[in-house]
Write a structure and sequence with these properties.
The structure holds 2 protein chains of 2 kinds.
Chain A (H helix, E strand, L loop, with lengths): L57 H13 L21 H7 L2 H4 L11 H18 L3 E3 L5 H19 L5 E5 L5 H8 L3 E5 L9 H7 L4 E6 L12 H10 L3 E5 L12 H4 L3 E3 L2 H4 L14 E3 L11 E4 L6 E4 L16 H37 L15 E4 L1 H7 L3 H10 L6 E2 L8 E4 L7 H20 L1 H6 L11 H6 L6
Parallel strand pairs in A: 2-3, 2-4, 4-5, 5-6
Antiparallel strand pairs in A: 1-7, 6-7, 8-9, 10-12, 11-12
Chain B lengths: L7 H10 L30 H13 L8 E2 L12 H7 L2 H4 L11 H18 L3 E2 L6 H12 L7 E5 L4 H14 L4 E3 L15 E7 L10 H10 L3 E6 L10 H4 L3 E5 L15 E5 L12 E5 L5 E5 L6 H4 L12 H37 L6 E2 L9 E5 L4 H10 L2 E2 L2 E3 L6 E5 L6 H15 L1
Parallel strand pairs in B: 1-13, 3-4, 3-5, 5-6, 6-7
Antiparallel strand pairs in B: 2-8, 7-8, 9-10, 11-12, 12-15, 14-15
The chains are: A alpha/beta, B alpha/beta.
């Protein structure tokens, strides 16, 4: 018998929030003695009631957050097969280099001549990302993929404004990630939904009918959100270009095609990359990320400022705001620099050949795992999956009443983090599985056994699945209650 | 170097299981015309030792707050980061986890974020906080989007004493959302007379402002409310042990750069975008929110809640497009605020104010050096008017081991913004004064 891959240790005292551990007069902080005269602040602006922060000893803090850490699953513990998330192993060397003082302790307002190392790193990373994606220049400023989408769409908008009209709509496939339509609206556009065909690919004839001169562009992932390569990609990009639109590559699935093909060569004009997916920067329980955006030569004038430039004569680097048509600033400083340092380490440790191997192994692992489970969880669409696959528990549900969510929860009790479920929205009882390249064959075998065992138990002992998980620190949580009786703070 | 574990046998046998005999066949569906028929034009992969050498070389080209005595601020500050912060936030169960989509396996991150939201509410005197945004500048963009959800109110007024990087970021956001932030002039470094008409959605004031000066925030926010607009305050989280919180000043939305809460300078990021507001606006808040609930056994637990606001459910009608946020930085902030406690926060605020005042008095003893706005009260940074170009003075002081401050675009290039955190000692301040005196002599 196995159990959930998270466990708490330590005595049963110390439960609750950090506030519950508070005792008046306890403290953890230590400041030096004040060695200058005290200053008075204006009476009308002084705080009267101290904030209700916990009063705890350092030892309390360490025990409490260690206990919380134990209740949390990270990819260091094992496979994390969330589809569309590319939760691959995060190399430790990236943490070591990010802590180097010239990176971790550099102040963002330091003059250029004192941050030549940081600027060279950004410059070299930009060039590498442009080579990987087939773009001319890139901005490293967007702090996450969704911000990269907004950046790219504002560039699209600036391009069309220059041509005379911003246009009205941006096309997105019905299987797209929710950030796409949300970003489209933030960029001042309406979302134009493009249906998928029976193969799970963009319905090109529908696109042809819908594409007109009000369409500013199309946003697409390729491989798409179903894990399938858009085989008619050249047709798609030429339809959009034919009406004067631009094509945006959502880099969520770039891992699959590293070194094999490039968005620029497929006809894309704008590309964003999620460094926490493709380049293994740790996702921190929800962030930070980084969302660099690359563009073709024609769109370079609209990229955000400041940009990193190199003086060809001296070889010195500087930050430049010299882009009169720039969309402006997407971040308070230079983006999530510490994340970009980790991405740099990952990219240059691998080199071109290594990155190509990353993509190959990611696709191999997904195909192998799909092969192991497809007899029970059929693929939602017939094509060969790439780095991830979307299976469906629809047949299982019809036969047993057991849903994809129940399978996922049972898989937890069997010792594994489950896949994404119920995404993409266009697939019933979707199970979206992305094992990534860093998992061993034995791990994939074990995960498949767990998924198939859960399906078997759906027939023999469905209650086991309805009740799951039973081995976790908490069991299934009442999400409806959380939304109905809002308790968002202590 | 590769992190993929496959042996040649693994590859062969796994391919065979898929009915294939070469890796290339996995990519057959990619049309030949778009395949890359050459290797990527990049250096070859290297060993871990070699990448470490390369990056140590780059790091060594940088000066930093490690080897310069740092009086630079203007949105990023050299506050002390206690050891306990990253010993805990740096645990791999936190930093190598994803967004908590499976709450039973993610109670650690979820509870830490619940505690973060609670602490932000305690700090700001406001009722709700989300689980983080990217940074202070983009948090302001989101706050303005929230304010502009009021029908018929599209305009956004921003004090000229708000950090220009924030205004530039707003201008970018406005390109899509359809507004242009309107900057109203502060008078002598603070205040101003904004005209808040019935079409104004929000009034943005930074307090303490971009010159470090304390704003007449109550009056400005009163003007916003008189015109029916939301009052938006950009605040410094570490000022709130000594300064009245946004809620008490009657701000409706408070946003901040949370770098100061236990996060490293890191050349500008990853930082932490803080946003807090009143309960009435909770369904208009952007981003993740964690709520407390119970499990099937009645045991307390935490989940992502009010997800109907978010892009993955609501798509183009979501309150924001944000997905990935800055959770790890929020966890660091939570540990840091636990370390400070109410008394540590207040003492830190008193030290910053005292040291900044002492530094201002020492530096203005230098002939030709004056406060840019004499007589104004400040918290932890202040603007000087130098007798010469501020960039030259700063560069000369770097030669002497000081990052003396951040040159301001104001005062004909002779303005220098000097920040003094609790880390700076009297001896360092005296030494900066001596060095500046020598440089200006």
């Amino acid at each position: 018998m196995t159990g959930a891959p998270v466990r708490t240790q330590g005595p049963p005292t110390g439960q609750g929030t950090i506030k519950d551990l508070s005792h008046p007069g306890r403290r953890a902080y230590s400041h030096p003695a004040l060695d200058v005269p005290a200053a008075e602040l204006p009476d009308e602006l002084v705080r009267r009631d101290p904030p209700g922060l916990p009063e705890v000893a350092e030892r309390d803090i360490v025990s409490h957050y260690t206990r919380l850490a134990q209740m949390n699953y990270g990819v260091d513990a094992g496979v994390y097969p969330l589809g569309s998330c590319s939760m691959k192993y995060n190399p430790k060397i990236a943490e070591a280099v990010a802590a180097l003082p010239g990176f971790q302790r550099a102040h963002p307002h330091q003059p250029d001549h004192t941050v030549q190392g940081a600027l060279e790193l950004l410059w070299r990373l930009e060039r590498a990302l442009c080579e990987i994606t087939g773009m001319a220049r890139a901005t490293l400023q967007p702090p996450a993929g969704a911000c990269g989408e907004l950046t790219g769409l504002l560039i699209m908008r600036a391009h069309h404004v220059k041509q005379g009209s911003p246009r009205m709509r941006v096309a997105i496939p019905d299987s797209s990630h929710g950030t796409n339509p949300a970003s489209v609206r933030l960029a001042g556009y309406e979302a134009l939904h493009i249906p998928s065909d029976s193969r799970g690919l963009v319905d090109v004839s529908a696109l042809e009918k819908l594409a007109d001169e009000d369409v500013a562009g199309l946003m697409l992932t390729n491989p798409n959100t179903l894990g399938l390569f858009e085989e008619e990609i050249e047709k798609i990009t030429s339809v959009v270009h034919g009406v004067g639109g631009l094509v945006y590559y959502d880099g969520a699935n770039l891992n699959a095609i590293l070194g094999r093909c490039r968005p620029g060569d497929m006809g894309f004009d704008i590309v964003h990359i999620n460094t926490h997916k493709t380049f293994a920067t740790p996702h921190g329980g929800g962030g930070p990320g980084a969302g660099p955006v690359g563009v073709t030569e024609d769109l370079v004038p609209y990229l955000p400022v400041p940009s990193v430039e190199r003086d060809e004569m001296t070889g010195a680097f500087h930050l430049s705001a010299n882009r009169p048509h720039s969309i402006g600033r997407m971040h308070g400083f230079h983006g999530n620099f510490g994340v970009l340092v980790r991405a740099y380490a990952y990219v240059f440790v691998h080199g071109g050949e290594g990155l190509r191997a990353v993509g190959e192994r990611a696709v191999l692992n997904a195909n192998y795992l799909a092969e192991l489970v497809r007899g029970t969880f059929p693929m939602a669409y017939p094509g060969r999956p790439m780095h991830e696959f979307v299976a469906t528990a629809k047949a299982l549900k019809e036969e047993t009443g057991i849903r994809a969510m129940d399978v996922a929860k049972r898989v937890i009790d069997l010792g594994y983090h489950p896949s994404t479920v119920y995404f993409p929205l266009v697939v019933e009882e979707a199970m979206m599985v992305e094992p990534t390249e860093t998992e061993t064959r034995e791990t994939l075998d074990g995960l498949a056994v767990a998924m198939l065992q859960a399906a078997g138990e759906a027939r023999t002992d469905p209650d086991l699945l309805h009740r799951a998980p039973v081995t976790t620190p908490v069991r299934r949580l009442d999400e409806a209650r959380a939304a109905r009786h809002l308790k968002l703070r202590w | 170097m590769r992190f993929a574990p496959h042996t040649d046998d693994d590859v062969r046998e796994m391919l065979a299981r898929c009915g294939l005999d070469s890796l290339d066949q996995l990519f057959d569906q990619i049309p030949p015309s778009v395949r890359l028929d050459r290797p990527l034009d990049m250096p070859d992969g290297v060993s871990e030792m070699e990448i470490l050498d390369d990056m140590r070389r780059l790091s060594a080209l940088d000066r930093s707050a490690d080897d310069l005595v740092c009086f630079a601020g203007s949105g990023a500050y050299d506050h002390y980061v206690p050891s306990v912060v990253w010993a805990l936030a740096g645990r791999s169960e936190f930093y190598t986890s994803y967004t908590p989509y499976q709450p039973e396996l993610s109670q650690g991150v979820l509870q830490a974020l619940f505690e973060y939201q609670s602490m932000i509410c305690e700090l700001t005197g406001l009722e709700v906080s989300n689980a983080s945004l990217y940074d202070g500048a983009t948090a302001l963009g989101e706050a303005v989007n929230l304010a502009r959800s009021a029908p018929g109110r599209d305009r956004v007024l921003v004090s000229s004493a708000v950090d220009p990087r924030y205004v530039e970021t707003l201008r970018t956001y406005g390109r899509g959302a359809g507004y242009e932030p309107e900057v109203f002039p502060a008078e002598d470094g603070r205040g101003g007379r904004p005209e808040v008409g019935p079409d104004v959605a929000g009034l943005v004031v930074q307090h303490p402002n971009r010159f470090g000066i304390l704003e007449p925030a109550r009056e400005l926010f009163g003007a916003a409310h008189a015109g029916g607009a939301r009052a938006i305050q950009v605040f410094d989280p570490l000022s709130l042990g000594v300064l009245a919180p946004p809620g008490e000043l009657r701000a409706d939305i408070a946003v901040a750069e949370g770098q100061v809460l236990g996060n490293h300078l890191s050349f500008g990021g990853p930082y932490l975008g803080i946003i807090a507001t009143r309960l009435d606006d909770v369904r208009r808040l952007p981003g993740r929110i964690v709520g407390e609930t119970v499990d099937v056994d009645g045991k307390v637990g935490y989940v992502l809640t009010l997800q109907a606001r978010e892009q993955h459910i609501r798509r183009e009608r979501a309150t924001s497009n944000i997905c990935t946020n800055q959770t790890l930085m929020a966890i660091a902030a939570t540990v840091y605020l636990s370390w400070l406690g109410p008394e540590g926060l207040a003492e830190l605020g008193r030290q910053c104010a005292a040291k900044a005042n002492y530094a201002a008095s020492r530096l203005t003893e230098i002939p030709g050096v004056d406060l840019l706005f004499p007589g104004e009260r400040f918290f932890k940074e202040f603007a000087l008017r130098l007798p010469g170009p501020a960039e030259e003075v700063r560069d000369a002081l770097i030669q002497r081991g000081f990052l003396a401050g951040v040159p301001l675009p104001d005062a004909d290039g002779r303005g220098l913004l000097v920040a003094v955190t609790e880390r700076r000692t009297k001896a360092q301040i005296d030494a900066l004064a001596g060095a500046m005196r020598a440089v200006l002599a």
